[in-house]
Write a structure and sequence with these properties.
Layout: H1 2-16, H2 19-38, H3 49-71, H4 76-89, H5 93-112, H6 119-127, E1 131-136, E2 139-144, E3 153-156, E4 165-170, E5 173-176, H7 178-181, E6 187-189, E7 194-195, E8 200-201, E9 206-212, H8 218-232, H9 239-242, H10 244-262, H11 265-274, H12 278-297, E10 300-302, H13 307-311, E11 316-320, H14 321-325, E12 326-337, H15 344-354, H16 361-373, E13 381-387, E14 391-396, E15 399-404, H17 406-411, H18 418-429, E16 433-439, E17 442-453, H19 457-466, E18 470-474, H20 479-489, E19 493-495, H21 500-512, E20 517-521, H22 527-532, E21 535-539, H23 545-550, E22 553-555, H24 563-596, H25 602-621
Length: 633
Amino acid sequence: MAAIQKWMEKLDDFKDRGGTKKDIIFLVISGIGILMSLFNLSPFPFDMAWLSIIFCGVPILLDAIIGLITRFDIKADVLVSMALLASIAIGEIFAAGEVAFIMQLGGLLEELTVARAQAGIERLVHLTPQTATLLQGDIEKKIPAEEVKVGDLLRVRPGETIPVDGVITSGVTSINQAVMTGESMPVDKQTGDEVFSGTVNQFGAFDMQATKVGEDSSIQRMIRLVQSADADKAKIVGLADRWATWIVVIALSAALITWAVTGHIIRAVTILVVFCPCSLVLATPCAIMAAIGNASSHGFLIREGDALERLSSVKKILFDKTGTLTYGTPEVTEVASTDPTVSESDLLSLSAAAEQLSEHPIGKAIVRAAKKESATLPGVCEDFHMIPGKGISAEVGGQKVLAGNTGMLSENGSPVKEDILTDTKKYLLKGCTVIYVAIDQRFVGYIVLSDTVREGGTDLIKALKNEHLDPVLLTGDNPNAASAMAENLGIFDFRAQCLPEDKLNFIEESQKKEEPVCMIGDGINDAPSLKKADVGIAMGGIGSDIAVDAADIVLVDDKIEELPHLMALSKHMMRTIRINITFAMVLNFIALFLAIIGILNPVVGALVHNCGSVLVIINSAFLLRWKSKKQPE
């Protein structure tokens, strides 16, 4: 048995070698042969339909044999194989060739709708830090990251990736934690704060003590989450294969009974030919291919063939916040001057001039905002200093400018008054960032920044609710920012401070309640959730490569307002598939009855069910230009 299994595997490998290009070439040759056979054109002393039997029929026979011997797996190809052999046995070569051609065409369409990608896991592996700086007294030593032990003291400089999880023992800095939480802005860290492997130290050097190393570190847990989520996602089985056993039983029973009662073997063969599930095989892939074409014209790249099938049953839409519902970059939303001698415009331009040399996203946002109001900034930035976790100081046009948090201004003799702190508290409660500004040790005002909601975000949520979908916000941001964003968009269900594990747990809980979910995200931290969800959709424009590789669907141009169209399209596609299947089955049973009473012969029967296949393709083609009536023109 082992020898047979090995031989079958070799045969299967040989049959698959060459992939889709080979299949297309074989189909073209077979199609030419079928047409020449139909019009009785042949330069050779044999029926040209033999080309289709050889190039399309033999692979079907191999699949049927391999499935039956190795797994006792009865699929649609079993019935097709019987029809092929029976047609050849009675000399109906055209019927055999036509059946083989249609079945392989359906198989090719299915293959073209399926794409698997593991590159996301490989890219995550590449994110794993390779080295660490070990502190042994006053001596620094570079060692491989995997050799770090719990309790080791490490030094991390600006721009370096943190090698293991740990706690800061000395120093202040800002950490880009997007890989873990998706937060749009760096997080200030100081002595006693936790830091995670795979995140990036942006501005200040610090020392840390390792607490979780090797397989226990955050980045390694992320890799395992992506792998396990991918393995758990079930694939939809083709309808023809799901019903294959019953189709085989019905066809064989009808053929044998007809032969036994009438004594006409040609009627039995005709039954096998007309009851071949050609149109049934085409019912799903043709509709999916047309729907994929429609989705592509709206900016969606469908990477998994059955993604639209799964999307049609989704009950909840889970959104990451940063970069998905928002643009993912901080923007100045308000400028307030508290000094009558300094206008709001001057406050912004002076702050921007001081921030010219800053690499911090907040500094860059202030510079962008000032340049929108004025083409040039007032003066050259001199004596620039960045104080990690606090702010910046610089000299502009002979004036000393400080921009940062309240602690920094207090340390430099420019304390912020209580009434100002009371005024700015409302912004902080909404998750905004407030930068306090002092000029020559005199507090003059503040600048408010926040991540801005994508245009049309509120209308998007309303449209999804009209499709009977429940939107849920899952974000790594703090509760205040999450609550403000959810309220602004009209989302009633949200979770804040979510790590990748938290998002996965929410998805698993929903799936246990039989509530299929669609996850939409853009960051590396979203990759496990995109894999685990029934359908994962990644933002293609600003999304990380790892998120894109983990997703079933990619929104290429980030126009998230097209999402309601995709949801409606998936449901309409399933209605089309059900219509196709109903039509195919009704036609098959009518043809079965006509074959039993002798009205149809194998050739005419093949043409009848071929017409059924053509009608299924035509009906599916209407999906290409379909547009929901609920969507605007």
